[in-house]
Amino acid sequence: MTDPSKWTIEQLHVHLMAAIELELMTIPPYLTALYSLGGENEKAEEIIRSVVMEEMMHLALAANVLNAVGGKPELTTGGYVPRYPAKIPFHEPETFQVSLLPYGQEALTTFLAIENPNHSGVEPPPASAEAAVPRVYELAAEYGYKTIGEFYGAIEKAIQALDTNGGLFTGEAGRQIGPDIFRPDPHGGKMIEVKDLTTAMEALELIVDQGEGDVKDPGPGEKFDPEGQLAHFYLFKELSEGHEYLKDDSPEKPTGPPITIDSAAILPMKPNLRAEDLSGALREEADSFNATYTRLLGQIQEAIDGQPKVLFSAYRTMINLKGDAEALLRKPLNDGSGLNAGPTFQFLG
Q1: How close are the terminal C-alpha atoms of the chain, in Å?
Q2: CB 112 within 8 A of CB 233
Q3: Is the CA virtual torsion 227, 230, 231, 235 positive or negative?
Q4: Handedness of CA 153, 157, 159, 165 (dihedral sign)
Q5: pTM score, whole prediction
Q6: What is the Cα–Cα distance from 71 to 62, expressed in whole angstroms?
Q7: Is residue 108 a contact partner of residue 209, using CB atoms and an 8 Å limit?
Q8: What region, left, alpha or beta, does residue 87 occupy, with left being phi > 0 and alpha being psi -120 to 50 degrees?
Q9: Element of type H or E holding 98
Q10: Phi then psi for 147, rounded to 5 degrees?
Q11: Which residues of the chain have pLDDT under 70?
Q12: Hey, which CATH number is domain 4-264, 1.20.58.100, 3.40.50.300, 3.20.20.10, 1.20.1260.10?
């Protein structure tokens, strides 16, 4: 693996752009599972919604760091928007498949693999031949990262090495997304404007802590992020095991109150559907969903390009996206599969 302390500024910029791509890659699968719950599974919906909001904050934090060190986030250009099914790096095995799936054990197994801080016993689904290779996967293959925490750790080391008396942080302050603009769940951490080494480290560490938790030696007191909340891995572990964590539980087994799922309410979506697989009215609805998704990404791009208040419009677009997705999820396909349509998350750029 290349020594991060010897990276050029260009290598740092590439890694931070990959971080943005990685955070974006997680959001559509999590949203798909959330939308498929049918509005009848309050606890599971609450958990997944909180994770989605933090992943969106992580995307904004990564963009803040890249903007602060003189880079330019390119969310909607350069082929960074994921295509599903997709390969994802940073874990053993080095590649596995991330799909758009309805809520269920297969989806939860994938989510645990994405957020895995190096626990054994997490077996991600292998990648199929059609799984797309995103740029972030190619980067990991070149540099040899095994976990997301290791990837972000390398970025931290590079920033520390490249920053000489604050000289690394040359970006425009007006490109920062601040806590007055992005307001995640009140327990989900605070948005950080990056202006120097200290705030850059805070932003990157928050991303890892909220996703994986402590990666050194996970124990009963280390599954929480700095705000005292469960990291994403352990939230998904609760759903997978069907129980909430108690304070003194081991990371491997939550033993608290049960989390019940009304499986009859889950909408039976066909995995990894593409708009081009549909016809007639269903194709029109899928195209409408993808137009809304494309608009959302465009608004986020405007926000990180120096117009942060555009995020207020993006919040409204998220509401429209949910409505479009749920409409698709309630429409049966006419292919004899007994499954429904669903969101395809295709960027029309």
Answers
A1: 34
A2: yes
A3: negative
A4: positive
A5: 0.93
A6: 11
A7: no
A8: beta
A9: strand 96-98
A10: -140, 160
A11: 1, 92-93, 120, 184-189, 212-228
A12: 1.20.1260.10
CA 136 to chain centre: 13
Render pLDDT for 253-297 as a digit per residue (tens, 0 to 9). 889 999 999 999 999 999 999 999 999 999 999 999 999 999 999
Amino acid at 297: L
CB 109 within 8 A of CB 51: no
H-assigned helices in the chain: 9-36, 42-68, 105-115, 135-143, 148-162, 197-211, 232-241, 280-304, 311-329
Could you tell me the sign of the dihedral formed by the alpha carbons of 318, 323, 327, 329, in that order? positive
Of 85, 78, 74, nearest to 17 (Cα)?
A: 74
Over residues 151-201, the pLDDT tens digits come to 999 999 999 999 988 799 999 999 999 998 887 655 556 899 999 999 999
Distance CA 268, CA 278 (A): 16
Q: Which helix (H) or strand (E) holds 86?
A: strand 86-88
- Cis, bond preceding 93 (omega within 30 deg of 0): yes
